[in-house]
Write a structure and sequence with these properties.
Elements: E1 2-5, E2 10-18, E3 21-33, H1 43-50, E4 69-73, E5 76-78, E6 86-93, E7 96-103, E8 108-109, E9 112-113, E10 121-123, E11 130-131, E12 142-143, E13 147-149, E14 152-154, E15 160-161, H2 187-190, H3 198-203, E16 225-226, E17 235-239, E18 247-251, E19 255-265, E20 268-274, E21 277-284, E22 289-299, E23 308-317, H4 324-334, H5 340-343, H6 368-390, H7 414-452, H8 458-464, H9 477-493, H10 499-506, H11 508-528, H12 540-555, E24 609-611, E25 629-631, E26 649-651, E27 669-671, E28 679-687, E29 700-707, E30 720-727, E31 740-747, E32 811-813, E33 831-833, E34 851-852
Parallel strand pairs: 1-23, 4-21, 11-12, 24-25, 25-26, 26-27, 28-29, 29-30, 30-31, 32-33, 33-34
Antiparallel strand pairs: 2-3, 3-22, 4-16, 5-10, 6-7, 6-17, 7-15, 8-9, 13-14, 17-18, 19-20, 19-23, 21-22
Length: 882
């Protein structure tokens, strides 16, 4: 279930059964300030604070609705008067009043009580009240046994007493007294739990016993309880329970919680309110804080609350209730895909505005750089106008008016932020549309001018389409320097002033910048060549000459490192072991070329053609094969570290034993690839790739993800993945035989019908929600695997190790689990029909609430301690505890 709530609310939910009905218990916790301040703390603050209290050894809230309201106190007694040997501590919450006496340390001196020792404070725990190991009502207490002190046996008196039951003789029997919670195992509460016998086991388990006294869930002493819930604005007063204030008093802040659930029933979602009661008040006078616990319950159909989609919790002032329609609107806003994340920050939708603590500061921050730029621009504009005016001209005549940018938007509220976001999106769409319109108009005007002058506009169109930007960039630095030198010589010949040109040629830093620009341009080309239009191939005599040159150079064991072989036809050549480090081979024809053992690291092979190319053992580290045509090539044992195959078309390519660290296949077409025995130590991601028919048999990947991929008929047999996630994949009839995944999952409703996992080793893997009908898992190691909500009809788990596996709500019609090890496996709510458990180990397995369709077989199965209760019952109406 998804929780939507105000930040100060802490929700505790618990599903329970009682008298044949199933309910969701909801507890909403708030931590408020005591005294005059009106303040709420966040949920995080609440639990951090609770962890510091002595009572944290007990649960703050168990989630079971209580039928009586109660208050509890955590803290210490403080002596504020002249007499430091004893003090009265008193508490008043609404109509409930209670007083206890706290003493300094005392002991029995014969039949007399020794004088009490002075003290400053004493924690109000049960260890200082009457009791001891022999008293079930307070085994933590004192006063019933002797203690060794300085070689003498003495008996201490309890330090906390109810004045009505104060001890006055050694033989007197005391009464445990305190303000804190009673342990659920003490008889004050345990006696009310009801009867848990064989009838309960067979008819009610795991429900609360039908004869239970529901006050067993009240943890406060009875004199701190009342039948009616607290209203929320009760007066309170605490005497001698604060370190500096003898009397701490005030009123509760007048708040209540509203809780709503979205429940799925008969395929429809219903929005319903859960009636909440203010049942428990935890007071911490020493810290001036209190925790308010509101409780409610709602009938549900599933014992684990699977039919509850959302829970929404808000806070209201008692005198300012909001309609249910408001909360429905809040739910819808927060679930909105567009603005839901921002709406979740709108706290005043779910709590009083005066209690909201802003989660972020919307105070405008001055953009000093922008302000300086605006001031400089304005100063320059004024100066320019003054200069024009100094010539006796009108600055406004024939000049464009000053351009002022749009005003800086004011964002003071969340509404402003959402409105600004929508406005910016609208402006973006309008600007794009206007830009396209302006572009079309401009092109029309330019075409008209070209037509009037009888010039070819096609050159411009080809340039705009990128058709003129092909192949590697041409370096400009050397040519520019040569041009400048020629201009200098020409200028001198005509007795012109060439000092500025000479200064530029003498500026080594400037020349270095030009050469650095060439390098950066080439680097950009190496990375992005596959996004350009393909370079033209070298044709005719030039192609023949280049081909001959390459053959001859290789015959003399020459290196091609850094060569520009763009568009070269190298098909059929034997270039094994050649060094093409950093070579430019865009659009090269490498059909049938032998490149085994070659070095093509950092080479550009974008748009290249590799048909039946032999690249066994070659190195392509950081090479760019983007948009290349690669068919029936053999990269067996090749190093493809950081290689880019973006936009490439790969058909029947062999990558067996290749090293794939950092390889990229974005937007690539991948048909019948063989990744068999390939390795990858880095993260390898296949996102929305069609990998049908591809083979990963024997691959060794450290981390990999297959996200929204088509894997039908793919082969993962004997592959080993240390970490692997298959997310929303379709892998019908794929083979995962012998697959080993140390940590991984098949997540978000994978389609795995007819798959073969025989002999796979997949401990603790999750298949939750996957379609696995007709799949095979024979002799697979699946300890702790999660098949909850999976379709396992006709699945075959024979002889599989499924210890502690989960099949909650799984479909197991005609599934084969014979001879499987299902020790401690959980089948709650699973659907069984003609399911075969013959000879299976079902020791301590859980078949609670399974739905039987008939024909199930358990012949010769080990069913010792097999849980079969409670049995499945159709859902019925709710009954409140009474």
């Amino acid at each position: 279930m998804k929780v939507i709530k105000a930040f100060p609310v802490s929700l505790v939910t618990r599903c329970f059964e009682f008298r044949g009905r199933t309910s969701l218990g909801v507890s909403a916790l708030l931590m408020v300030a005591m005294g005059e301040a009106r303040k709420l703390w966040t949920e995080k603050d609440l639990w951090t604070f609770w962890a510091t209290r002595a009572e944290a050894q007990w649960p703050l809230e168990e989630g079971m609705p209580r039928v009586r309201s109660e208050y509890l106190i955590s803290g210490s007694a403080y002596t504020h008067g002249k007499d430091r040997t004893a003090c009265a501590v008193a508490a008043q919450v609404g109509a409930l009043r209670k007083q206890l006496i706290v003493h300094g340390e005392r002991y029995w001196d014969g039949n007399a009580i020794s004088p009490a020792q002075a003290f400053a404070s004493l924690p109000l725990g049960w260890s200082h009240a009457w009791g001891g190991p022999a008293l079930p009502e307070n085994p933590l207490g004192m006063g019933m046994e002797d203690h060794e002190l300085d070689g003498h046996r003495i008996r201490l008196l309890p330090r906390i007493e109810d004045p009505r039951f104060a001890l006055n003789s050694r033989e007197a029997v005391g009464m445990p007294a305190g303000f804190g919670p009673l342990d659920g195992m003490w008889p004050q509460r345990a006696a009310k739990r009801g009867t848990y016998d064989q009838r309960w086991m067979t008819e009610e388990f795991p429900a609360v016993a039908s004869d239970a006294d529901w006050t067993t869930f009240n943890s406060a002493p009875e004199d701190q309880q009342q039948a009616e819930p607290f209203k929320g604005d009760e007066a309170y007063a605490f005497h001698n329970l604060h370190p500096t204030q003898p009397l701490l008093q005030g009123r509760l802040p007048g708040l209540r919680t509203r809780v709503f659930v979205t429940q799925r029933r008969a395929g429809e979602e219903k929005f319903r309110e859960v009636r909440m009661r203010f049942n428990t008040l935890w007071c911490f006078p020493d810290a001036e804080r209190a925790i308010l616990i509101f409780q409610g319950m709602h009938e549900i159909a599933e014992d684990d609350g699977a039919d509850v989609v959302h829970v929404l919790a808000g806070i209201e002032d008692l005198d300012a209730p909001r309609p249910a329609a408001h909360y429905l609107h809040v739910r819808d806003k927060r679930l909105d895909k567009e603005n839901g994340a921002l709406e979740s920050l709108r706290e005043d939708d779910l709590m009083p505005a005066d209690l909201v603590v802003p989660l972020f500061d919307l105070t405008p921050i001055e953009n000093r750089a922008l302000v300086r730029g605006q001031r400089r621009a304005e100063a320059e504009r004024v100066a320019a106008r003054a200069e024009v005016a100094s010539y006796g001209l009108d600055p406004d005549a024939g000049h464009a008016p000053a351009v002022k940018g749009p005003p800086q938007p004011e964002v003071k509220t969340l509404d402003d932020l959402i409105r600004l976001r929508a406005q910016m999106e609208t402006q973006r769409i309008e600007l794009n549309a206007q830009a396209e319109k302006d572009k079309a108009a401009m092109l029309a005007d330019v075409k008209k001018v070209f037509a009037e002058q009888n010039k070819d506009f096609g050159v411009i169109e080809r340039e705009m389409a990128g058709l003129e930007t092909r192949g590697p960039p041409k370096p400009f630095a050397a040519a520019l320097v040569e041009d400048f030198r020629r201009f200098v010589e020409l200028g001198k010949a005509h007795k012109g002033d060439v000092r500025e040109l000479e200064d530029m040629l003498a500026d080594e830093k400037l020349i270095a910048q030009w050469h650095d620009g060439d390098k950066k341009q080439l680097q950009a080309y190496r990375a992005m060549a596959h996004y350009q239009h393909a370079a033209d191939g070298v044709a005719g005599k030039a192609s023949t000459a280049l081909r001959a040159r390459v053959s001859a150079h290789h015959a003399h064991k020459g290196s091609f490192a850094g060569w520009d072989l763009t568009g070269a036809n190298l098909s059929g050549l034997d270039l094994q072991g050649a060094d093409f480090q950093g070579a430019l081979l865009e659009s090269a024809n490498l059909t049938g070329t032998l490149l085994a053992g070659a070095n093509l690291c950092d080479a550009v092979l974008a748009h290249a053609t590799l048909l039946s190319t032999q690249c066994q053992g070659a190195r392509f580290d950081r090479a760019n094969l983007g948009a290349a045509r690669i068919e029936k090539c053999d990269f067996g044992g090749a190093s493809l570290v950081g290689t880019g195959f973006q936009k490439a078309r790969l058909h029947e390519v062999r990558l067996r034993g290749a090293k794939l660290d950092g390889v990229r296949f974005d937007e690539a077409v991948m048909v019948a690839l063989d990744f068999g025995e390939a390795t990858c130590e880095a993260m390898l991601v296949f996102f929305r790739r069609d990998l049908r028919g591809c083979s990963f048999a024997g691959a060794r990947f450290a981390q990999c993800s297959f996200v929204e991929c088509e894997l039908g008929g793919a082969d993962f047999s004997q592959a080993q993945f240390a970490k692997c996630a298959f997310v929303s994949v379709r892998a019908e009839r794929a083979s995962f035989r012998g697959l080993r995944i140390a940590s991984g999952c098949f997540a978000q409703h994978c389609m795995l019908t007819g798959t073969d996992f025989d002999g796979a080793h997949l401990p603790n893997i999750s298949f939750r929600g996957a379609a696995l009908a007709g799949s095979r898992f024979m002799q697979a190691q699946l300890q702790g695997a999660d098949f909850s909500e999976c379709d396992l009809a006709r699945a075959d788990f024979r002889q599989a190790d499924l210890r502690q596996a989960r099949f909650v709500r799984a479909e197991l019609k005609q599934a084969q689990l014979s001879a499987a090890n299902l020790q401690e496996a959980v089948f709650q709510h699973a659907r069984l029909e003609a399911t075969d458990y013959r000879r299976a180990n079902l020791f301590q397995s859980d078949f609670a609430r399974v739905r039987l369709g008939g024909g199930e077989r358990f012949d010769d199965a080990l069913i010792t301690r097999m849980r079969t209760y409670p049995r499945h019952r159709p859902p019925a109406g709710a009954t409140s505890p009474s």
